[in-house]
Design brief:
single chain, about 425 residues, alpha/beta, Rossmann fold, 3 domains, 7-stranded mixed beta sheet, globular, DUF815, P-loop_NTPase
Length: about 425
Amino acid sequence: MGTLKTYKEIKANLESLLIYRNIRDDQVIKSIEAMFKETKRDTPSNTFLSSQYNTVLGDLVCFAEKRAYKGNLLSNYVLDLILNDSNVFAQSCEKYGDNIESCLKDLAIKDLRTIFSIMHLDFMSFKNMSKINGDFILDYNPTLNKDLYKPYNEEKKFLCQIDCFDDFFNSLVQYYHKIGSGILSSNIAFKWVDDFGIVPVNNPHKIELNHIIGCAYQKDMLIKNTDAFIKGHTANNVLLEGSRGTGKSSLVKALLNYFHKDGLRLIEVGKTQFLHLSTIMNELSKKNKPFILFLDDISFEDTEIEYKQMKSILDGGIETKPSNVLIYATSNRRHLVKEKWEDAPTLSNVGEIHSNDSVNEKLSLSDRFGLTLTFVKPTQKEYLDIVFGLVEQKNIDLPQDYIKQEAIKWELNQNGRSGRTAEQFINHLIGEHHLL
């Protein structure tokens, strides 16, 4: 077992955490603290220590499968606590890198030395008190969620393997600056939820750019605009408008999977939440990371006022949009605000000075996007190109003439020609012929 002096020192230092004090509220850390406390007794209870040891092992396995930990489970777990604690030091590193004043830096170093010692704690020294051989936590291989957390675990893997504290601290600062802290460190897609703010999407869409067939021009323009944005160059807010099912939303989601390793994050905001846009912008302005606000399938009735908030932000009012934020919106309408007949100038209202102003205000929202990409309904040839592209992706081995004939029947009987219709047809084909 580790020395009593070591346990006493770690216990005392845990109690004095300042910057990373939230870590003490974690259940696994509480169990380890309780074990340290028990070892200070003149006659420690082996029954209690065994119970706490088994509890920690069980918790670590549960989290290992949830987060796809590989290797030393205790090191992975404690490192997650560090990375997910969005404290003032972590937030400062996000924004300024290693350009941190010594007062804050020294406090963080003191806390992190203690937490680093737990990361590398010889927890197996307790195993003689239990009937469970816990050696598996030293080199664990998970079963669940390996693909889901692969990007995150690849980024943090090197931090787990650092033995020298000074090297660990410097690498952690760079990690904060490049990747972020809190939920930003382990997620790439988010949504805004009233009363909760920015909430991670645990299982974002996995679609890749090369899976989207057709719309080559739109894809190329969107990639170039996003690439410029991520590199800190001038880029435009984008409106993707056009027919239903033509790949507008899928293209935005695929961009995230393409650029997330470069730091890109996506936040979906619903139409009813547009009044919170200023709050969202203010929160994101504190981060050293590019964000796309994703406004999916938007349009407004003439009685809805949310479009004015959006228009103000796109225009650049007194409160400007942060340079690390772009808005990508999709809509089935070219003009996002519905125009009613009574808005149009007539003989009865031609003398009203503000009639045209009202119409222009409603129609001008879409003009505020610097880049508008139009998606049109595919021709039959383009539709069949999409179908056969998906056939190749799915490795479907059926006669081409049969597939063509059935694909045409499908679009005539379903929702018309579109990328979505083609995908639905392929799903039908796979199910009907038991191909997967």
